[in-house]
């Protein structure tokens, strides 16, 4: 890794920031303490809620960690399309006996400015951004505060934008990744046309001179070795850490990752209005084809339904975010998983060295 980034975590393993409760202080602390880089997810939290988690994490470890922010969504959303989808979901509201979200057009910036203010006033080691690239002035402010900045990218073009804006590194997200695709522009015409991780890393490596963190479907140390050989400096894993006991994901979500009832994943707009990869369940099959490009409006619209499904013990109505490698999930403590991945990585690299000598 580049000298400055390697100072943050000795092992090239980054725990993905998974919004929605999975990436809490306990998980991040365990990963950082084991030599990886733990992450908090600032998305879907208030600015104060984010800050309280930062304080809890600092009480658990003195190791470096990161915080992820969602960029404000500025694209036009058709209110009529959202209302039509509300009608589509009326049966779900009746089934779970819970109302659909109201006032869904409020708060599309996810408290971005307030979160920036907190992170600049009380800096953390690293801040990453998803769903776009911050203004150059924002990135310069973090650099001046001593914070490393990482922009999530899904194409070489987005990587060039991040480099021009002054990002310190990019997180290259392949289409295999679980959860939301971090595209800078949500274009429905481009749904499902993203790049696989290895070719995307190669493209970005040739396009920019920034350190690369590779993300998407990574579950084993040998896969980490592959992305490092392709030009990445570190690997970011989300689904692999989702089943750890320190993860805040629901027990239903954790169990579903290796349940034969959920053998595959798909990209869908059904739950949030933005493409996101999850386990295929009833809700996704029935409503995905009708979901509009309307983020975060659809997220707010379905929030109560998802919570009600979880409370009812029904994974068929939940957003079961997962990467393509979900069947390889191992229920290990997060620190132990970092150790296992590191050992597998070393074994794979040693095998490669022997085969080429």
Helix content: 40-55%
State the separation between the terminal residues, measured CA to CA. 23 Å
Strand proportion = 5-15%
Question: Whole-number average pLDDT?
Answer: 96
State the strand order across the main sheet: 1-9-8-6-5-4-3-2
Provide the fold topology.
Blueprint: H1 3-8, E1 13-15, H2 25-33, E2 38-41, H3 47-60, E3 65-70, H4 79-88, H5 90-96, H6 112-121, E4 126-130, H7 136-144, E5 148-153, H8 156-165, E6 169-173, E7 179-180, H9 197-207, E8 212-215, H10 221-230, E9 234-237, H11 239-242, H12 251-256, E10 265-268, E11 276-279, H13 282-287, H14 297-311, H15 334-356
Parallel strand pairs: 1-9, 2-3, 3-4, 4-5, 5-6, 6-8, 8-9
Antiparallel strand pairs: 7-11, 10-11
How is this structure best described in words?
- This protein is α/β, with parallel strands linked by helices.
- 42% of the residues lie in helices and 13% in strands.
- It is built from 15 helices and eleven strands.
- The strands form two sheets. An eight-stranded parallel β-sheet has the order 1-9-8-6-5-4-3-2.
- The longest helix has 23 residues, at 334-356.
- The model has no long low-confidence stretch (mean pLDDT 96).
